[in-house]
Amino acid sequence: MARLDHVHPAMRTALLAMACPTFDTQPWVAGPPLSQRRVALLSTAGLHRRDDRPFAVTSGNARAIAGDYRVIPNDIAANDLVMSHVSTNFDRTGFQQDWNVVFPLDRLHELAQEGIIDSVAAFHYSFMGATDPHHMEDAAHQLARLLTQDQVNAVCLVGPPVRAPSAGLRIISKGTVWPPPRSA
Fold first, then answer.
1. Exposure string (b/e) for 143-152, b if CB count within 10 Å is 16 or more?
2. Can you tell me the distance from the alpha carbon of 70 to that of 49, in angstroms, rounded to the nearest whole number?
3. 97 lies in a domain?
4. How far is CA 53 from CA 19, 82, 123, in A?
5. Which range of residues forms the domain containing residue 70?
6. What is the pLDDT of residues 101-136, one digit of tens each?
7. In total, how many domains does the chain have?
8. Any alpha helices (H) in 19-104, and if so which ranges?
9. Is residue 151 part of a domain?
10. Fewest Cβ atoms closer than 10 Å to its Cβ: which of 20, 89, 157, 163?
11. What whole-number distance in Å separates Cα of residue 15 and Cα of residue 9?
């Protein structure tokens, strides 16, 4: 995740001026320990299979693309995953060298093999980032149904690479963060 002090001043100003949405409720569901979790990846890097249609990059209507997502099968090969995110603030170099920078599927499989998590979901999902959350409610409900059908009980949220140091893979659930933060 980028720190504001690592972001270009114009972008920092724009981000600080953005309204932060508020919601009527703050749902949080406690779940089993990580060793009993089936985990899916949810990316905002505009990722899709090579034979899928790219994400829309120009549209006068943000609502038209807000709920647009792609389904990525668990058995996808790294060279079949494409990034169509177009922001100039995202550095694609890391993704081109190692897809785990943006889509840590190999790391997730390693966690399952080591017994740190129970299993990896059959499908993962990617959205185009920088979308107003209010416009994504329908897609969120669709995704919740798909995740439930796949018996997923944990999701790892992964964003596109930014031109700043990354925090790396974190699986977060109430009261649990894996791996533990490093002490300074």
1. beebbeeeeb
2. 8
3. yes
4. 31, 10, 18
5. 35-178
6. 888 999 999 999 999 999 999 999 998 776 767 777
7. 1
8. 62-66, 93-97
9. yes
10. 20
11. 10
3-state secondary structure of 56: coil
How far is 173 from 13, CA to CA, in rounded Å? 31
Other residues' Cβ atoms within 10 Å of the Cβ of residue 100? 18
Place of tokens 């966690």: 111
In a domain, 159, yes or no: yes
Give pTM, 2 decimals: 0.71
**CA 99/CA 92 separation, integer angstroms:** 10
DSSP 102: T
Look at phi and psi of residue 129 and say left if phi exceeds 0, alpha if psi is from -120 to 50, else beta: beta
DSSP β-bridge partners for residue 71: 125
Rounded CA-CA distance 177/180 in Å is: 6
Q: Does some domain include residue 99?
A: yes
Q: Which two tokens stand for residue 105?
A: 């599927």
Are 124 and 131 contacting, i.e. CB atoms less than 8 angstroms apart?
A: no
